[in-house]
């Protein structure tokens, strides 16, 4: 006798099947993203420990002028131009001077020379990456999370994970709510049998982690290869892009700054930025030539939720333009907050531990999901343990079509994989029907 499952009516059965397919086929990508993401969440603190010999210095009563610190870094690599200066902001923090190393092919890479702000001595030299100045170890973990060190093709895995995470999370909550009702946060008391206990724990953990999973999905999508472009276009269409800060000092073409000008003007720009109320750790961007102004912006560091910026004429110390964070469009603010929350930067170690715990929770949920599948694993006539087929009406299919087109246009990898699941589901249904006959 056939043991195939009979069709179930309506949305619940369909959501259950999609949750099953996504859990079986997409969850491995989410698992990899969660493991690498949990590691990356702790990377800022690991970096501070691993590179403490260049990131920190002992407090001393004396200090060296910033111009002399920059000059020391220039002297260590006279063939390289200065791209940025990160002045020390505390007695125990080193100054970082970022140089353009032509031998490095990747445009995201700069060479960081670390200088003791008290003695003016160069204390280290490391490659650095991205706007937060990731050092090699942290960058390696970042690339693992982003693309598994496979370059652009590898970014497809993380985009697929981010595109499906919110669907799996919301679908799972819906199914759990139908089972547990008002007890979605506490779980059911009568859970006889191991499978019921695992299901109960799976549902409760998923409910508690829901907001975190949705946040990771949304912020991860903004960085993705294809969907990220749609996010950028949407923000631009909504007028959410910030206007760039004005940096023009003169309409007359200028000349590149000499090493001496860069060193001397860095101190002028730092003083001007501090006078304008920029209190955080700063990044000073060297202009292309003398017709342009320097830019100074506050770095995103633990405890900072805003980043103001000014442009300064390095020759005179005159402020050319200001860009307070408070005046940025809402979407620009949300983008910044989302990025630095996702990276574990904004609130330091407490946020990093919370993200790590979230990653562990996601991994545990995936393992429990596979445990549930294994306990209803394939038997003769029950292909792959798939839940009962959904008996959808014409209206249901119309709504599903609209959802697929709308969401799939914005999240291409989700759209393609979702359609592939529907096609596979139809083929399985036919095969099951043939077996039953």
Give me the count of strands. Answer: 10
| H and E string | EHHHHHEEEEHHHHHEEEEHHEHH
Helical content band: 40-55%
How would you classify the helix and strand content by structural class? alpha+beta
Order the strands across the largest sheet as they lie in space.
Answer: 5-4-3-2-6-7-8-9
Largest sheet: 8 strands, antiparallel
Share in β-strands: 5-15%
Tally of separate helices: 14
Low-confidence stretches: 1-7
What value does the average pLDDT take?
92
Radius of gyration: 27 Å
**3D shape:** elongated
Pfam family, one: PepSY_TM
Keywords: Membrane, Transmembrane, Transmembrane helix
Protein name: Membrane protein
Transmembrane segments: 20-43, 156-177, 198-226, 354-373, 397-423
Describe this structure in words.
With 437 residues, the protein is of the alpha+beta class. The chain folds into three domains: 11-40 and 146-229 and 352-377 and 389-429, no CATH class; 56-143, Roll (Nuclear Transport Factor 2, Chain: A); 238-283 and 291-343, Nuclear Transport Factor 2, Chain: A. The chain contains 14 helices and ten strands. The strands form two sheets. An eight-stranded antiparallel β-sheet has the order 5-4-3-2-6-7-8-9. A two-stranded parallel sheet has the order 1-10. β8 and β9 (319-323) form a beta hairpin. α5 runs antiparallel to α10 and α8 (194-222) packs across α12. The longest helix has 29 residues, at 194-222. The termini are close together. 33% of the residues are buried. Mean pLDDT is 92; it is low at 1-7.
């Amino acid at each position: 006798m056939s043991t195939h499952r009979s069709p179930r009516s309506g949305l619940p059965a369909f959501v259950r099947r999609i949750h099953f397919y996504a859990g079986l086929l997409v969850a491995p990508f989410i698992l990899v993203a969660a493991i690498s993401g949990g590691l990356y969440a702790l990377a800022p603190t690991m970096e501070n420990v691993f590179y403490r010999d260049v990131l920190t210095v002992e407090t001393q009563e004396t200090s060296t002028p910033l111009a002399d610190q920059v000059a020391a870094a220039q002297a260590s690599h006279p063939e390289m131009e200065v791209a940025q200066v990160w002045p020390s902001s505390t007695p125990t923090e080193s100054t970082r001077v970022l140089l353009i190393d032509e031998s490095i092919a990747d445009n995201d890479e700069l060479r960081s020379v670390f200088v003791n702000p008290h003695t003016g001595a160069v204390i280290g030299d490391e490659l650095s990456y991205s706007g937060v100045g990731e050092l090699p170890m942290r960058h390696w973990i970042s690339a693992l999370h982003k693309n598994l060190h496979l370059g652009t093709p590898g970014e497809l895995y993380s985009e697929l994970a981010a595109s499906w995470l919110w669907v799996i999370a919301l679908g799972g909550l819906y199914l759990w709510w139908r089972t547990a009702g008002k007890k979605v946060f506490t779980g059911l008391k009568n859970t006889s049998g191991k499978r019921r206990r695992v299901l109960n724990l799976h549902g409760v953990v998923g409910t508690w982690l829901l907001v975190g999973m949705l946040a990771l999905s949304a912020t991860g999508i903004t960085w993705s290869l294809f969907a990220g472009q749609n996010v950028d276009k949407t923000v631009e269409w909504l007028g959410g892009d910030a206007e760039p800060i004005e940096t023009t000092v003169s309409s007359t073409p200028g000349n590149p700054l000499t090493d001496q000008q860069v060193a001397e003007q860095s101190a002028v720009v730092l003083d001007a930025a501090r006078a304008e109320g920029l209190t955080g750790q700063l990044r000073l961007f060297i202009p292309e030539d003398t017709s342009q102004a320097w830019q100074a912006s506050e770095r995103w560091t633990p405890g900072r939720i805003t980043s103001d910026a000014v442009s300064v004429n390095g020759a005179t110390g005159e402020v050319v333009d200001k860009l307070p964070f408070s005046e940025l469009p809402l979407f620009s603010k949300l983008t910044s907050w989302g990025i630095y929350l996702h990276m574990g930067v904004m609130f330091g170690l407490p946020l990093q531990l919370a993200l790590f715990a979230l990653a562990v929770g996601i991994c545990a949920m995936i393992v429990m999901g596979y445990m549930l599948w294994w306990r209803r694993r394939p038997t003769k006539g029950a292909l792959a343990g798939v839940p009962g087929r959904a008996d959808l009406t014409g209206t249901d299919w119309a709504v599903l079509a609209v959802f697929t087109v709308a969401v799939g246009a914005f999240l291409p990898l989700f759209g393609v994989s979702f359609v592939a699941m529907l096609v596979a589901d139809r083929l399985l249904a036919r095969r099951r029907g043939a077996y039953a006959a």
